[in-house]
Fold these 2 entries.
Entry 1:
Amino acid sequence: MSDAPVIDEEELRSRVRALLEVVHPERSDYVTFRRAQFDHGLAWVHFPEGHGGFGLSPKMNQVVRDEIQKNSTVYYDDPPAGLIGIGMGAPTLLTYGPEDLKKELLPRLFTGEDIWCQMFSEPSAGSDVAGLATRAVRDGDEWVVNGQKVWTTVAHLSKWGMLVARTNPDVPKHDGLSYFLVDMEAPGVEVRPLYQITGEAEFNEVFFTDARVPHSRMLGKEGQGWRVAITTLMNERVAIGSGGPKKKGSGAISQLLKLWKERDHNSTSAAQTAVLRDRVTKSYIEAELLRLNSLRASATAKSGNPGPEGSVNKLFQAESAKRLWETAIDVLGADGLSFEAGYELRQEVGSAYDPEGRSKYQFLRSRANSIEGGTSEIMRNILGERVLGLPGEPRVDKKIAWKDVPRS
Amino acid sequence: MQSFTDEHEELRATVRQLLADHSDEQAVRVHMASDRGYDADVWAQLADQMGLAGLIIPEADGGAGFGFSELCVVAEEMGRALLCAPFLSTAVMSAGALLLCANDDAKAAHLSSIAAGEKTATLAYADTNGRWDLAGIEMTAQEKDGAWLLEGAKGWVLDGHTADLILVVARTREGLELFGVESGAAGLKREAIPALDLTRSLSRLEFTGTKAVKLSDGDQTEGLERVLALTHSALAAEQVGGAQWCLDTAVDYAKSRLQFGRPIGSYQSIKHKCADLLLDVEFAKAAAYNACFLVADCLETGEGWDEAVEYAHLAKSFCSEAFYHTAAENIQIHGGMGFTWEHPAHLYFKRAKASELLFGDAAHHREALADCLGL
């Protein structure tokens, strides 16, 4: 590596321009351009050479984007259905995958030809995901998988699934897991939409019935599955945590303020109107404080003393979002009784979030805010134990074999 | 939002140490039981040696020439230590009123002696009708034979029975104006109110044809709104300090108190309470710091006051509830111990409720914020 030329920002920009001379987004299709971008090491520049990058700092990816956008009116961004594979799958495969698998799958991930999904959660393993029960049993060069996964985004579009399964039930729960890449089109893998309280299916259930996975598609070693899964989850945090602070009064709160201004305040007594106005103002305060606290977190992070500012936001956000939409439907009053969108069961691709005019939908959808990505109860445990240093609960499942742990 | 600098943190450490030396729990209990309500020597030390009385008074007027972000840090530390002192009345409200509402003569007459700690002062703005908004002020001042006379009463005046200078807000034909009354003026009756919160002295002041000096030139409604923004922001910072003490104390106790063979903080019922208190404290900081940074900018540039007033209402409303909640839950987490006179939890609980009600409760400030937002 010491002989390799130093690639600074200027050099990187010139390499982007060299790519654009060979293929240009304005004159080529999505897959062709993204494949060339990968082959030029400009897909994810923090990856090693030969795997779509140059071993640069992750910050430099922004330079590539910037240079392409400067020179092209068309920009081929990551495909919406590919975010899980690109954001979480690629770094996991890079860290733990065998060389030939990386060569085969990383380019197709970047071009969007292969969509990936993540299969960790199970009906019996939500907050306690390491207690999962899907079994993988070795049979020669293959593993035979039986069990069920749940809350699997884009599984119905996926070619590959990141699966954590139990390969040894006789050791404590974290030690008996292994991590596989599963061909979602293989026999014995069945994907069904999971309809939620809105009537939509943003997620799926995945059922495994004697599905066979080659041993060569295990990421990491047998029994190392938890460590590999942590790598995936850490990248989830990076992917989710990258949203910048919004403008004052923007986002969900703008919808509530709009509803309030459109409300006929003569429809209730002055006293009732005052009570509702107070609730609307409370929601405004909470929205502002979330924004201000993000600003405070980034200001203190810059000065090198990261405090607990960031870690409290997820809990406050989840709880305040529920309150906000409860207030919104109460502001609607009798109008809150109707649900114009109807409950036709349908499968949505990507996020259904639409802040304009879907207050009743959001009222229903926001119930998940304090469940998905860590329940509010788990967040309180984390804040209590990791930030405040309070002792953990006595654990009954830590040192005994997984098969001996009581399960629902 | 801005963040505190290394200089701010040095100031914080200095003030914290000073308060640990002069205002520990034992000292607070002695000071709050005294007639004056605070220790004059300690105050002189803070005002004179540290320059805390003149934090926001410009150097040209004899002050320390710091800004409101420094005052924020100081107020937070004072709230944490539950300091008994005429800081809010003198260094925040009176200094603020003189800076933002008074004419040059009045500034020259009073600012430097306040900054030097030679005299304490207070701002008597609310009447006794229970209203905290400026529109609720009914007290009038009449000009008679070239002298101004005050008639009426002011309620809930901070340190009103000890202040050397009383700044009174009263109505004239011009509008709301600022008047100065010396502590020994004829026709002034000062009565200390037995207070819920023993650490902050409150008085009722009666004026019967009391001679006053008019300190302003014309209606000061706008200036007084800004003085209240200063006051609300400083009080919010003080509430943050108190809330942080309650959180720290609750968490320490939850780690050390054993029941059923383990620390009570290992039970989720207590742990989750503590996590919720952490949220209170962290978001109260976001609210109070933001408000204080905005006021600091306004004092420096003279611009942006509408925004500062708006966010001061936001901060006073949120921090009031946050402090009260942490103080109340601190008692609950301490169990029977938290209910005793001996334990300091009740001192913070009383300070929390009193500072919530003082200058208008959370709902009052939400209403004011809603008005700012045009809701």
Note: Chain A has three domains: 1-77, 116-239, 246-373.
Entry 2:
Amino acid sequence: MIKKLNKLFSSVRLTIFLFLFLAVTSILGTIIQQGLPVERYKALYSSGVFSVLKFFDIFDMYHSWWFLFLLVLLSINITVCTSRQIPRIIKLIFPEKKEVDDSVFRSSQIRKTFQSQKKLSDIERQSEMLIKSLVGNPVKIKKEDGTCYFFAEKGKYSRLGMIFVHISILLILSGGLIGTIWGFNGQMNIVEGNRSDTAILFGGKGTEKLGFDVSCDDFTVEFYKTGMPKEYKTDLTIIDDEKKAASGTIRVNHPFFYKGLKFCQATYGIAGVSDFKIVAKNSLTGGETVLKLNMMKKVPLPESNSSFAIARFVPDHGGMGPAVLGVLLEPGKAHDIFWILKNDRNINQQQRGGFTFTLKDFTKLYYTGIQVSKDPGVPLVWIGFCLIIMGFILSLFFAHKRIWLRISGSQDKNEISIAASVSKNRKPFEEKLEEYSRTAFYGFTVE
Amino acid sequence: MNDTFLISIVTFTYFSAAVAFLASIIFRKKSVDKLALIITAAGLTLQTSAIIMRWIHSYKLGIGHAPLSNFYESLVFFSWSIIFVYLIMRRRYRNSLVGTLSAFFAFLILSYASLSGNVNCTIQPLIPALQSNWLISHVISSFLAYACFTIAFGTSILYLFKIKAKVNIVDLLPDATFLDEVTYKMISIGFVLLTLGIITGAAWADRAWGRYWGWDPKETWSLITWLIYGAFLHARLARGWRGIKMSLVSIIGFIAVIFTYLGVNYILSGLHSYL
């Protein structure tokens, strides 16, 4: 049983299967919107389909039991495969015996043999130069029987690249798991001048008490000429234990940190409007009066018995910009209700009860949408990211090259055997070896 | 002279380069290949100047930002990346047919960018979420990855054609093992660049949205793409898969790339609504 499991988890077939299976199932969660309230799904699907989808947690599938199970399988798979590779890699980086083994000249990927009648010292000099130009400074070993060996290697640490990459995937996955278990992610909407200590978690997962208050001291938004928001920011203060503990400004892409929590500027909106200024122009005298009023508060109109109030505000009235719903109260008459637009639109306003009304100004009260998150897994993920880049650099830009050279033979005839191995890009290396050795051993017999 | 006009010249230049590369194959002339290379390099130089011009122009408009922020700009940079990757890989894998493919893909993308009605080529100001130092590194690594995958897609199609088609033209195609090798090399480099693109995107998302990963459709599709190409590399390196099977995986991977780039924005909804 254990043997079978070991065999399963050490197979790259499992890795390929898991990769493709994860890829295919992940598509589902991009088609079915995730984390909506349950009622929305109930309305979308028939009860049979709904219960199947519910069983497989499709509405929050990336945190479902089976998705987690697949990731655990992948982690075990990576752990087993990588730990199996480690001894081999260590052996390659730190070989046990320094003694040259003649078997490399029979078993290496790349082999070559030359023969020459030149002086031994000349051959040695040329061999050394060849190795130096191909790989690096060689180590020279002379045996008692007169056989001479050269060995050089370069980039042995590039072998660590793949190990780094696989360990980093494990780090990132465990960081993600830690974040899912001990972290949270939610939003708090705070109206200017107000404070809150509760975040509403995403995906309908309830609320989270922060243990301190976040106060929105000020919110400002700037717009481009096109009406697109250019920048919005919140000045906030942290009130911990009824004392001012910290304060700062958050903008989009510029978060604020307190007690391991991260506060990001996410959205904003209009919470309310107040301090309306409405110009009432007397149609007979032409005199203008600025009425200062708030929602549902009656004010008397000048030189008349009537009074006026506003009942509603809309940010955009049928594409004509902000407008208020005005109510004209004339004694002995029914209420007259009508829309009043902002004056910069040059739209003719109707005359009502002897006045023409124009909306001049009002104060917007914003709320700021702050995303609050805590994720103790983030450091692990960052370490994983750095390690994966290091691993890729090691294995992409460096190769492990080794070359052995043996000069053996009698007084009048020497044999030069070359063996080499490279961890990648074998073809260009072989071509280079061919070219260099042909120049170095010019005139030698190639066997 | 404005940058969009320069881009239309570049479009034409890449088309000529594609034709010249094709001619060098048909007439088996090395000198024509050289000429095609010069045309391609000229196109890339011109395109680079157009991109820089647009960058400077945006500062003159008072909304200065790198021209990598809307659909039009991303298409221009995508075609730039394809040619850039081709010129680099050509040093080791010199082949006129890969040149034809690259120049032709770049031409297609640029013609779509200039001619299609739903691509707005005006310089727009940056919304707050895009005002980040991560923008440049994220976009560059992602599009260089897309470019590598595009070339791999081209060589995979050629490979299948070479193996399966029973026509005489096949003789003009490069060696099947050469095509297989180029597909593999392009995918392994693309994979590293895609990883870099996902990492820079995660770092950015962490600052902008408070989390490095949120299973947003764009994020998920980039992961799907990563998984497909990851499976490709494991199958090849550890299991020794070659040939037709690998070409098919490469083609499926490229479909995922296109979906990550376009499909998510046009079909699915999410935070990444600005490409």
Note: Residues 1-118 of chain B form one domain.
